[in-house]
Each structure stands twice: as structure tokens, then as C-alpha cells.
Design a protein that fits this description.
14 helices; alpha/beta; globular
């Protein structure tokens, strides 16, 4: 400590402002930063410009590099020993550069995203207790949030990775909420709206305890009859005329009427690479399954959605994945398992399970959408199934820390998470 005259804390994401304030003669970085061109964040290049600006010298240490990510993971990680051992095994099979290469290759993909638009309204309340007159829960309203969910959230996630993203969805003609939707849609997404007569765009109200964020009640406002006999064929024609332009057709089918049986049949017949999730929720009353489609190159289902398709409430389903995947001609079939991660089936490989990496769970709404968005692109690139599951669980872990669809998970966040896990 006798060699240290002064300690300063950098308050910014990079050291640029700190360098300007302190104006050192020498700015020292670790030896791992010598190859400035390999810095994917671009931060070292920005700092180098400031070093030149203030007339300082950039120097590098020659000591052994102790990765801060590695030290944090080893000594401060909340992961169980089982997950730490899994990450060591994964790291022995795949390199970080392979993960980054897969993410980089996604920028070449052209993606068509199709599905139901859903507006999520969160009403945060204080729970007062039971009514003195009736056997009901009494809440005191505090404030509310409004999010663009459903296929809008999917398109926003995809736009962080793919080169081109086009969106097809159905809005209500009476109360479309189109202006709000456009403010929440990433500018890189090109939308095509069709309008359902006599209906509003689906709205899902969630009453949430303001302290714990536990959901207390959901109320749906929607007309799920779908497009009429003139507009539904028009939607199919619009899609069919453009299918050959895309590398991936990603369908998030929430069962609220945007995708009719005729549309699902057309997509099964003509889509070049079809990625599908059919969501089971309170609005489709358990009658909405993957069998609505005849073919899918990539299928992504939550465990309860798979069990609904199999008509199986309990027991192991591993032996059924192969039969289901082959029935649909799939290259991958993925089942998300909540806190247990996911299971990935491929035709010529054993089923692999990838654990979840979630440090904290704030809200599960939208997590499956994020998982689907990234893994559909990975599937199109034919990455190993374990890498696909690894990437899916990373974006799922990031999404589950956010209330609703308040924030889109970007590529940089996924790369940083992967780096922290593997270093």
C-alpha cells in the first residue's frame, strides 16, 4: 500500500471520463486487452482515443490474468455445485468463440414473425385482506404499467439478433391500440397489420401484489373468433407471396384467433423453415396444441404444453419426444422446464438437458417468448442442440428478471452472460 498515493472510483461504464479527470501519464490495462481488435464491446478503442487525446501512454501488464468473471463465478456464484460442474463440462465441449460465432451469424437471417398481439396491463395493488361482507379479496390500487406483449415482444427480441425482421399480426378494428403498439415496436421491425372486425386488440389485465409482485388475478378482454372469410384468405395470400424471401418463419401462436386453421395449414405446407410455439393459456381453455400444425422444423413447448399434446399429466415424457419430433419432421424439439432448464431433442442425438441459470425470478411472463425468439434463430443455423439450449436458458434467465415485457433482451447482454458463465 506504500506505493499507492491515491485511489479513485470510476463512475462510468468506461474509463473515458475518469481518464480526462485524472490525466495520468500512463494508463495500464491487463495483458488480455492487448488485442484491441478482439474487444467486442469497443470500449478499449474508445479509451485508447482518450489516452491519445490527453497525451498519455497505454501500457499492458505481463502478469497472469485472473478473470474477474471467473473469480466471481467461483467464489460468489449462487449456482449449485451441480450447475457449476455442468458449466465446466459444457466449457470443455464448446468454446465461447463458438457461442459468439452463432450469435454473429444470426445477423444474416431474414425472419418473418407471425402471431397474436397482446397488450399486458399490470395493476399494482396493496392487499388489504378479506372483505368483511363477502368472501373476496380486497385490494388498494397503487399504479399501473402497460406493455406490448405476445408477438410484439417476440419481434422485438428477434430484432436484437437477426438482420431483417418483418411482422404479421392481427389487431382489433374497434380498439386497435395501434398507436401504442407502434411506440413499443423496435424501429427495425417492419409490421403488417390485419384488422379483426367487431373486436379490440386482446388485453390481459393482471392484478399484482405491489410488494411481492405475485399475481392475484387475471382478466382477459378479447374476441378470439379471428378474421372473417374475406380477411383471413387475404392474410394467407400476403404471407404465401413472400415466404421464399425469409430464412425463418417464426410462429408464436397464442390461440387468440390471429392464426386460423387454414393459415396454419398453409404455413405447414409452404414455409421454408418453420419454427412454432403453440401456447396453452387460460384464454384457449386447454384446446390449443401443436397438432394444429402438420409440420415444423423447430418446435418449442413448455412442459405443460407438451403434456397437453401427449394427454399426459405426469410421468417421464422423454421417450415421447422422439416420436413427436419425427411426426412433425422436426430438426429440434425443445421442452422448457422452468427452474429445471430445458430438454433438447435432435433426430440423431441423445436428449440433452441444460440447467437454468436464473439468479432471481421477478416475473415469468414473456420468458418463453424470449426463449423461442433466440433459439428459433439458433435452430435455423443448425447449431448443436446443447448450444441451442444454453443460449435459450441465458436469454430466459435475463427475461425472467424483468417485469412483463418492460425490456427487450439484447445481443450484448446475452454475450456478457455467456462470457461470465464460461470464464
Amino acid at each position: 500500500m506504500a506505493l499507492i498515493d491515491y485511489v479513485a472510483i470510476n463512475q462510468w461504464p468506461t474509463a473515458e471520463e475518469t481518464l480526462r479527470l485524472l490525466r495520468p501519464h500512463i494508463y495500464v490495462k491487463g495483458s488480455e486487452f492487448k488485442k484491441i481488435i478482439s474487444d467486442r464491446t469497443g470500449k478499449i478503442g474508445l479509451e485508447l482515443k482518450v489516452v491519445e487525446e490527453i497525451g498519455a501512454k497505454l501500457a499492458f501488464t505481463e502478469d497472469i490474468v485472473f478473470s474477474s468473471s471467473n473469480l466471481l463465478n467461483r467464489y460468489f456464484s449462487n449456482f449449485s455445485q451441480e450447475i457449476r460442474e455442468y458449466l465446466q463440462l459444457f466449457g470443455s465441449r464448446y468454446s465461447l468463440s463458438e457461442i459468439q460465432a452463432a450469435l454473429d451469424q444470426m445477423a444474416s437471417l431474414k425472419v418473418l414473425v407471425i402471431g397474436d398481439t397482446i397488450i399486458d396491463e399490470y395493476k399494482y395493488c396493496q392487499v388489504l385482506g378479506k372483505s368483511s361482507k363477502d368472501p373476496i379479496l380486497v385490494l388498494k390500487f397503487a399504479f399501473q404499467d402497460l406493455f406490448a406483449g405476445g408477438i410484439i415482444a417476440v419481434a422485438n427480441h428477434v430484432s436484437q439478433f437477426a438482420g431483417q425482421v418483418d411482422l404479421v399480426t392481427v389487431l382489433g378494428e374497434e380498439n386497435s391500440r395501434e398507436d401504442f403498439i407502434l411506440t413499443k415496436l423496435n424501429p427495425r421491425v417492419t409490421p403488417k397489420f390485419f384488422y379483426q372486425p367487431g373486436a379490440s386488440t386482446p388485453l390481459k389485465k393482471r392484478f399484482v401484489d405491489n410488494g411481492s409482485f405475485n399475481k392475484l388475478l387475471e382478466v382477459y378482454e378479447m374476441g378470439d373468433q379471428g378474421l372473417d372469410q374475406e380477411r383471413d384468405p387475404a392474410l394467407q395470400r400476403w404471407i404465401a407471396e413472400r415466404l421464399t424471401e425469409y430464412d425463418v418463419v417464426l410462429v408464436a401462436d397464442y390461440g387468440h384467433g390471429a392464426i386460423s386453421r387454414a393459415t396454419s395449414q398453409m404455413l405447414s405446407d409452404k414455409a421454408p423453415f418453420l419454427a412454432v410455439n403453440t401456447q396453452a393459456n387460460g384464454g384457449n381453455r386447454g384446446f390449443h396444441t401443436i397438432s394444429k400444425y402438420q409440420r415444423a422444423d423447430y418446435i418449442c413447448l413448455a412442459e405443460h404444453e407438451l403434456r397437453l399434446e401427449l394427454r399426459q399429466t405426469e410421468g417421464h415424457f422423454s421417450q415421447d419426444l422422439g416420436a413427436l419430433g419425427r411426426k412433425f419432421g422436426s430438426s429440434y424439439l425443445v421442452v422448457t422446464l422452468g427452474r429445471e432448464g430445458c430438454a433438447v431433442w435432435e433426430p440423431q442425438a441423445e436428449i440433452v438437458k441444460v440447467p437454468a441459470f436464473s439468479a432471481k425470478v421477478v416475473d415469468r411472463v414473456g420468458t418463453g417468448d424470449a426463449f423461442l425468439s433466440l433459439t428459433a434463430l439458433a435452430a435455423r443455423l443448425s447449431v448443436p442442440g446443447e448450444i441451442l439450449g444454453f443460449l435459450g436458458n441465458i436469454i430466459g434467465s435475463l427475461a425472467v428478471e424483468v417485469i412483463g415485457n418492460q425490456k427487450t433482451v439484447d445481443k450484448g447482454s446475452v454475450e456478457k452472460f455467456a462470457t461470465a458463465l464460461l470464464k
